Amino acid sequence: MTITVTRRRLLAGSAAALALPAFARAQGAVTPRLTAISQWSAGSDGAAITALGKKFEEKGGIWQHSPVPGFTTEMMNKLRAQIIAGDPPACSQLKGPEIAAWSKIAPTVDLDAVVAAAGYEKVVAPDLAKLHKPGGKWIALPLQIYSTNMLFLSKRAMDKAKADKAPVTWAEFNDLAEKMKSAGVAYPVANGGTRPDDGQKFEAALAGISPASYRAAIMDLDKKALEGPEIKAAFTQVRKIADWMDPNVGAQHFSTNLKRFVDGDMGMMIMGGWAQGVLRNAGFKFEDFMIAPGPSDNGKPVFLLNADAFIFWQRKEADLQAGQKLMAQLVMDPAIQTMYSQITGSIPVRTDVDLSGEGWSDGQRTTAAALKDAIASNQAVLSLAHNMAQENGMTASMIDVITEYVKNKTIKPEQAATRLADAVESAR
Amino acid sequence: MRERTYAPSRILIYLVVSLIAAAWLAPLAVVVLNSLRTNEEIAQGSMIGWPQHFAWSNYAAAWSGFCVAETCAGIRPYMLNSALVTIPATIFSTLLGAVAGYAVSLWRFRGDSWIYGIVTLGIFLPQQMRLLPWTIVLRDTGLMNTLTGLVLIHTIQGLSFTTLFCRNYYVAIPHELIRAARIDGAGFFRVFWRIILPLSPPILVVTVVWQFTHIWNEFLYGVTFTTGQQQPVTAALIALSAAVADIPQHGVQSAAVIIAALPTLLIYLFGGRYFVRGLTAGAVK
Questions:
Q1: Chain A residue with minimum CA distance to B220
Q2: Mutation test of the interface with chain B: which of A39, A40, A66, choosing the one with the most B Cβ atoms within 10 A?
Q3: Residue A159 has what pLDDT?
Q4: Please, are residues A143 and A343 in contact by the beta-carbon 8 Å criterion?
Q5: Distance CA A367, CA A150 (A)
Q6: Cross-chain residue pair B69–A65, CB shorter than 8 Å
Q7: How would you classify the pairing of strands A150-154 and A266-271?
Q8: Which positions 138-167 of A are in contact with B (Cβ < 8 Å)?
Q9: In angstroms, rounded to a whole number, what is the distance separating the alpha carbons of residues A85 and A105?
Q10: DSSP strand E in A39-186: where?
Q11: Is ipTM over 0.95?
Q12: pLDDT score of A284
């Protein structure tokens, strides 16, 4: 049977689509198509988004993904260029407070209906949900979560120190580091030399000492909290950590020193959950290391959230709109989140996904359990080092202070606290 | 047979020069060695070391194997893209620069120094500042996400440098030559083809080497204005190396870097001598 498309029929069709709240009709009329840009081009990230694209195609959609190789700046340049050219992608990767900032540049899609239909809001950490509905409406969807303050322990370094339990509080952490040091572990804390690496040490310290101060000072930029004693305590803890690190590590990626960590030459590593995948890909085994939530002085897990997300840009084309809807449904689907996280080593955004089955690692189960507990005790906060707590400019000026403090040991904790408060003031 | 003797000062010079050369070549040596080591070997050992066995497979993977998201075609298609942008853009910007340089140096007209000044001002504008104007131009010409668009950008932006180079070279040409030709009835383009161009090879080599290297290595425009399969090789290289939360693929990366650097390396090997000669041609007159 051939269908002739007349203007009348088109008009009737679109009127019907508008009239019917059931979106399924409209979706049936056009083939959903999605133009997407992301930074995910290589490694497990590239593999995961490729798999997501396959699922999109299985559901009958046309998947047009443009990876923007490079770092966030390149992707932002491209996004800006496309928006100015009047051709924004139907969806693009974007995370943290940048979602709110960019939503003022171009119109975004209201996802409230799709989110409600999926019952998504109930299973997302509240702080995370807030980031994705800056004006009160969902315009972006988180896809996967990493914790930036997981504690990796080298089995060989633990054996040297005759320890077998992961430390829970910072005091226990410091004890263990001392034990490792006297047992001959050259550097009880493993480190890279990049800015996020230094930033993670500070945020882990402060959130572990007091999640409430972290929320007030770092996320809400509360002046009183920024000048509070917890900030000084955090800098004091960071100095201890820095003294246990190898000072001869320049701007190296943390993975450069993984062998020294596994060999027991370096003892503990504060790193995001992604380090599991990196260790595995480098040929190391799970027997080589332990993984636990980062130190928390009140004993309940503190979870520093780092979540990747997609933002959806308004398009007039019916096929792109159908594609956006399909994409949104896929991103929120527990099965898709499972598939995605199993490829990258992250954990699902949905806290109701069961991780007991095959395909999940112990590290991922530990991380997911930590997230659940942290949400229950209101100790899931947003990572500064990975651009979740503040917009890029503010983050940069805060990390400047932190990274200088880590490397320059003549700066006193009190001075660092003052500098941090000043940096926030001038970046405001 | 006479024994050669070296003055101590000469030995010192050689020593210093060798040390500098070694320091400059050390990173290249590391890249070459790593291009022959497997990823596991590098991760399990150190970044610097001799290959345990030669992993030539890195080169195969770099050339036609590795994936940039959904596309697993290695560096090959992107090399072709780079060539398709670099070669025409180099030719066009060089020729236009020669004409422009000739016009502002030998064909004096009202406001010529102003025009020259404005054109060379382009050298000092940061790339990022030009992103938005180019976005609008590409949008209005419909050249967004095409190699033609990149050729246009590099041709026009290259004019700043090529005009500067050629103008500085042409000012040394005696005006009598042009005047004589004009008396014989030669016009603007006849003088250019018959007199200026035959005198130009040294400076043309300079501009070609300069433009080729510059355009081949350009990243920002390539990554911003093209997507996926249309991207130049620099974008593909970054795709290989930018995974923050993943172990860097040092072996394949190194091999890809070496392959991607070959065209510019060859241009320098063949044109390098003329490059220096051409640059200093005006200076010693």
A1: A74
A2: A66
A3: 96
A4: no
A5: 8
A6: yes
A7: antiparallel
A8: 146
A9: 13
A10: 62-67, 91-93, 140-147, 150-154
A11: no
A12: 86
Question: By CA distance, what is B235's nearest residue in A?
Answer: A69
Residue range A281-313, pLDDT digits in tens: 778 888 899 999 999 999 999 999 999 999 999
Residue A93, token pair as written in the block = 């990767």
The structure's pTM equals 0.81
User: Per-residue b/e over A226-245, b at no fewer than 16 CB within 10 Å?
Assistant: bebebbbbbbbbbbbbbebb
Contact A206, A213 (CB under 8 A): yes
Backbone angles phi, psi at A368, to 5 degrees: -65, -40
Percent of chain B residues topping a pLDDT of 70: 94
Bridge partners of residue A268, in order along the sequence? A153, A189
pLDDT of A400 over the 90 cut: yes
Question: What tens digit of pLDDT does each residue of A39-94 get?
Answer: 887 777 888 899 999 999 999 999 998 887 666 777 888 888 889 888 899 999 99
Tell if the CB–CB gap between A281 and B144 is shorter than 8 Å.
no
Min Cα distance B55 → chain A (Å) is: 16
By Cβ distance, the residue of B43, B138, B219 closest to A282 is B43
Please give the Cα distance from B265 to B271 (Å, whole number): 10
CB atoms within 10 A of CB A48: 23
Contact B224 A282 (CB under 8 A): no
Give the closest of A44, A53, A67 to B68, CB-based: A67
Nearest residue in chain A measured CA to CA from B142: A85
B282 pLDDT band, cuts 50/70/90, is: low
* Rg of the Cα atoms in chain B: 24
Cα separation, A214 vs A199, whole angstroms: 13
Give the tokens for residue B39.
């990823």
CB distance from A277 to chain B under 8 Å?
Answer: yes
Residue to test with chain A: of B70, B75, B131, B238, most A Cβ within 10 A: B70
For residues A399 and B27, give the distance between their C-alpha atoms in angstroms, rounded to a whole number: 29
CA angle B71, B37, B255 (to 5 degrees): 45
| Chain B contact present for A70, CB below 8 A | yes
Nearest Cα neighbor of A202 from A239, A249, A252 is A239
Tell if the CB–CB gap between A68 and B227 is shorter than 8 Å.
yes
Model confidence over B162-171: pLDDT tens digits? 999 999 999 8
Distance from CA of B124 to the nearest CA of A (A): 21
pLDDT digits (tens, 9 = 90+) for B78-96: 999 999 999 999 999 999 9
Amino acid at B93: S
Tokens of A142: 């988180």
Q: Which tokens is A137 given?
A: 């409406």
| A255 touches B: beta carbon within 8 Å | yes
pLDDT bin (cut points 50, 70, 90) of residue A17 is very low
The C-alpha angle A42, A44, A49, rounded to 5 degrees, equals: 80
* Stretch among A407-416, B18-27, B250-259 having the lowest mean pLDDT: B250-259
